[in-house]
Design goal:
By secondary structure, the chain is an alpha/beta fold. The chain has a single domain (4-280), classed as 2-enoyl-CoA Hydratase, Chain A, domain 1, CATH 3.90.226. It contains 13 helices and 11 strands. Strand 1 and strand 2 form a beta hairpin. The longest helix has 17 residues, at 229-245.
Length: 285
């Protein structure tokens, strides 16, 4: 079964992340399948707008830590030491570019977020043109606490420096209410109204000629890109590799192998583990 589903519904293309049993966690295939679906929509003269969602209980819970963190040994995201930063950069830059197919799409993309859009899942959502969240959904990039840097760097361009720092210097998750209040997303609505709200917005856009939609999106995106988006992404993607291969990053990987990634993530997010000293905070020496 495809890990990303594609459906055309009149003038709307519907792209759906489809690993519901693991909250649509990102594996080696999802970035490629996502970009292929975006390309398919852009090649269809009958498609005016794309709606991006997730099947099951969440939009996307980030990278699949069972594969990348908990499994013993090296993998495409964690090399044996000494590591090659350029090898890591090539791997992660490819994923960043595949996520950015949403940004580059000539058709506007509306992300419909329910459950969670966290870590790498927030990268995907924030590459979309507009985000509509359910009020009880959560978005955030918790790996900034250890083992990650958001490679798309979209936080700063959507929020500005002060609010981006608030999110990326804490690793907090925020709900839809807060995301709308600070301007991270277009709108937050009650969960039972999410589908209807997204449909209204998509149908409104779908009545506009494709060339008009394309010109407005290109013009707005150009303003952001002129602010140094791609240079910032280069730095962010390099830093992401460093976070996974720093002493603290390798300690997180080992902790996930020893006690499971869920326990390691719990300790990371609660701030109860000293990743530099590689022991619980305030534990006896």
């Amino acid at each position: 079964m495809a890990k990303v589903l594609y459906e055309k519904d009149g003038r709307i293309a519907r792209i759906t992340l489809n690993r519901p049993d693991v909250m649509n966690a990102i594996d080696m295939d999802i970035p490629h399948e996502l970009a292929a679906c975006v390309a398919r929509a852009n090649a269809d003269d009958g498609v005016h707008v794309i709606v991006l969602g997730g099947s099951g209980p969440a939009f996307c819970a980030g990278y699949d830590l069972t594969a990348y963190a908990e499994t013993e040994g090296s993998n495409p995201g964690v090399q044996e030491m000494p590591w090659d930063p350029m090898k890591d950069y090539a791997f992660m830059k490819q994923n960043t570019d595949l996520f950015m197919s949403l940004w580059r799409s000539y058709r506007p993309v509306i992300a419909k977020v329910h459950g969670h859009a966290v870590a790498g899942g927030s990268d995907i959502a924030l590459c979309s043109d507009m985000i509509v969240m359910s009020e009880d959904a959560h978005i955030g990039y918790m790996p900034v606490r250890v083992w990650g840097c958001p490679t798309t760097a979209m936080w700063v361009y959507r929020l500005g420096a002060e609010r981006a720092k608030r999110m990326l210097l804490t690793g907090d998750k925020i709900d839809g209410h807060e995301a709308e209040r600070i301007g991270l997303v277009h709108k937050a609505v009650p969960a039972d109204q999410l589908d209807a709200e997204v449909e209204r917005l998509a149908e409104r856009m779908a009545g506009i000629p494709i060339n008009q939609l394309m010109m407005q999106k290109l013009m707005i995106n150009q303003a952001i890109e002129s602010m140094g988006l791609y240079q910032t992404q280069m730095i962010a993607t390099l830093f992401d590799g460093i976070t996974r291969h720093s002493p603290e990053g390798m300690n997180f990987k080992k902790r996930a192998e020893d006690v499971s990634w869920k326990q390691a993530v719990r300790e990371r997010d609660k701030g109860t583990f000293d990743w530099t000293a590689n022991r619980p905070i305030n534990a006896p020496l």
